[in-house]
Write a structure and sequence with these properties.
The complex is a heterodimer of chains A (about 500) and B (about 375). Chain A has about 500 residues and is of the alpha+beta class. Chain A has helices spanning about 10-15, 25-55, 65-70, 90-105, 105-125, 130-140, 165-170, 215, 265-305, 315-345, 345-350, 355-360, 365, 370-375, 380-390, 395-425, 430-445, 455-465, and strands at about 150, 175-180, 185-195, 200-205, 215-225, 230-235, 245-255, 260. Chain B has about 375 residues and is of the alpha+beta class. In chain B, the strands form four sheets. Chain B has a four-stranded mixed sheet with strand order 1-4-5-8, with helices on one face. Chain B has a four-stranded antiparallel sheet with strand order 2-3-7-6, with no helix packed on it. The two termini of chain B are about 35 Å apart. Classes of the chains: A alpha+beta (about 500), B alpha+beta (about 375). The structure holds flavin-adenine dinucleotide (FAD).
Chain lengths: ~500, ~375
Amino acid sequence: MTSITPERSLRERFPRLLPHGERLDVGELERLRSRTRCFAEDHVRPRALEIDRRTGEDPSWFDWDLVRAGGEQGMLGLLIPEPAGGAGGLATQAAIVMEELCAACPGIALIFGAHALGVAPLLLGGPSQWDGVLAELVQSERTAKPLLMACAITEPEAGTDVEDPDLLRRARITSHARRVPGGFRLSGTKRFISNGSVARWITLLMPTDPRHPAETWTCFLLDTRSEGFAVARVEHKMGQRACPAAELTFDEVFVPDERVVSREGDGAAATTIVLACSRPPVGAIATGVARGAYERVLGWLEEDRAAKGLLERQHVQLALASMEEEIHLARQLYMDAATELDHTALGGVTSNPAVRAIAHVPAGVRRRAPMHGWLASDRARDATIALLHRTTSERAVTRSLALSSMAKAHGGDVAMLVTGAALELVGLRAGPVRAELEKLWRDAKLTQIYEGTNQLNRLEVYRGLCRSETISCLPPLHPIRRKTEGGRS
Amino acid sequence: MTGTTIAERIEIQAMASELAHRELAPRAAALDAGGQDVLTECWRLLAELGLDRVLLDERQGGAGLGVADLLATIEELAVGDGGIAMCVLLCNAALATLADEHLADVPAGARWALVPAASGTEVTLSNGQLDGGVACALGAYGADGLVILLDGPEPAAWAVGAGAAGLTLERDRPQMGLRAAPAASVELAGVSCAPARDGSGGSATAVNVASAPALLRAGTAAIARGISRRAYETALEYAHARKQGGVTIIEHDAVSDMLSAMAVRLALRPEIASDPAGLAIDEVQALAAKIATTDAAVASTTDAVQVFGGTGYMVETGIEKLMRDAKYCQLFPEPNWVAHDELMRPERTSRVAPLTRTIAGNGEVRAPRGRVL
Ligand SMILES: Cc1cc2nc3c(=O)[nH]c(=O)nc-3n(C[C@H](O)[C@H](O)[C@H](O)COP(=O)(O)OP(=O)(O)OC[C@H]3O[C@@H](n4cnc5c(N)ncnc54)[C@H](O)[C@@H]3O)c2cc1C
């Protein structure tokens, strides 16, 4: 199949990537890209239209075979740290994988993308999270029953408002995590949650005091087998249908203290960092959608009898050149944002000697009482936060978030532009390629909406780059321990 | 035939508008889901009001109205559902090209569709028989009859009954937009056909085979406007109701700018009729209107989904459907880049130029430099 990327290596295109970089070895990235491309061509693209059709008829239909196939390729453990058994990937790896998968089918890619979004908050918990659910996810990866994750932030009354810490202050939050002895009871509704109906674990954000959502926004790790949890509905979506978006209800669901990710009240900061990490891959999703459309239209123009002579038309040549140009720029943006995050904003955390020392402790020792007890303690959580403060700054994260938002918003627009132009080039008479392009065009629209609408993302660019503002996005060193109902000291 | 009075035209529009809001809009989701029964039901309502044969004169069971009336009606119907409006356009265009003797055989309430086809590459005619195929012919599936409109220097139209030997219609499954005008891939294997009317015809309308493509373009422009209106009205209402950041979202410039752009696009209404009575279409204007209006509809419906945020992406809200319908308008009867080509055909460019005339200070009409008037 026609492809626009093989000519120049990643190293040539992104000189910031080091030949044997500690976390971003460019050779490894090249291998990851070609492995993913093969997987996408062999498993994803051939199923894309059929899955779209089936989920169009029944939105709750889900292709577990694909998840298993992805699991065998390490797609589920990509971001999970090596000590927990995963590949230890960062935003850059996630982005590269997303572009490749999305060029084949954005909906299927979203299954793995939403899983990664669910994993991301756990990574902020540091070594204390390695031996729990993260290890379990990796162990399940190559089994007949792989475990998926989801991340639930959006509520019916608060979508944009929960994507930004300042807006969260004024948000109409209807969910509530009520303190009870030994943990919390969660009530409320979360909406549009990708993988929500198929996930085994969900990272979930709710306030412990709805009157002060920003200050008490807290991340919980929820077992979807818990009593009181229900999937209220699976949405019938315009596109990216392979990945179900669900409305989830919580009726006094109990979550024990040890499943509070990081600390109570740190959720707003965690969300900001998670979005800084997840938006470059969303930019890559959009770039992949655009590339998929471009490759298909080019293939049609080169090979289909009905398109004979069209490549000689300047109109067509100019349209193709613009597509190539836009895709190129979108890729530069997401790679810049991802490497900025991995190298600069969070690079110090991942390469910190203390973290690496713990990583070298054999898992068996880490999981035994003394060390396990310390890792699960409040002191260990505080130490993880302290490490964040030592190795990065709120300004660095804000800047990184702005670059990530730019990549996401620009990519979304490029996805719409290129898929729309490709569809216009082939028209209604084009045969099978039309169905593929129509699907990609429907898929593309979502990239302007999720992970914060493009409007919100551009406002983040304004704050972080045009005004050089600094968002308060690191959890406080010394948390204000609020006295909530049922009181924990 | 005399032109319709303004009062009559307003009355027709009001009737179509009421039908769109009361009957079509509530059924739009079912029509989009591809329900044949609901299409039959809607078609019956439309036929009862004579909207299937607006252009034919009363002698032929028609309403005897002009093109401008048909376009105004179609726009109103498209506010309810773009696909149904497309069925009305295709049926009126098909019947307007039929000769009187054929029309006599078309029963009241029959749904016909005009199918534009590329002569030679898609469909060939020899010895009164049609061969070839047309992919994604809008409105053709389930139609009672087709008029195959062959393009070329001398356009010709050929009538084929739905049951004709050698004609196969297969439902176009992927059809993404205007789904109430069910598309078919049309296969013709030695299909005997009858020539549809040529010349200006003796009916109430100036539509003939030669001007049928212009009617399709002008009608598609009208549908696109109807879709844009619905997108704007629905998004505006939502923007006044949905709150984020402690205020209704219309109070955010990011949202009001999108709505304002939609309003601006709607304010620019292209003139399509070539005569004051609105009986005939100016083909250059029709091309320009189709390009501008369908591009505007794609932009406005995409923004409407954006105003709705995630809710707009869900099928049940009915907003994303507008986006799909608008996209199909951009691709029918030809993609807009091909329509641009049509506009620049040498025989037309001299007629585009007058559109660009400017009035100089002394009142003299001048063309921009380098243009031939
Ligand atoms: C298919 C799908 C999958 C999703 N997956 C997930 C998921 O896995 N997990 C999750 O938590 N969420 C998920 N979401 C939710 C998604 O992140 C939200 O839809 C998005 O943040 C927008 O929120 P909203 O839909 O409530 O729109 P709203 O916030 O209601 O926005 C409506 C409009 O108002 C504008 N607007 C709102 N506030 C402002 C402001 N302050 N300034 C300027 N303009 C503003 C928006 O830009 C938009 O145009 C998903 C959504 C979809 C559609």
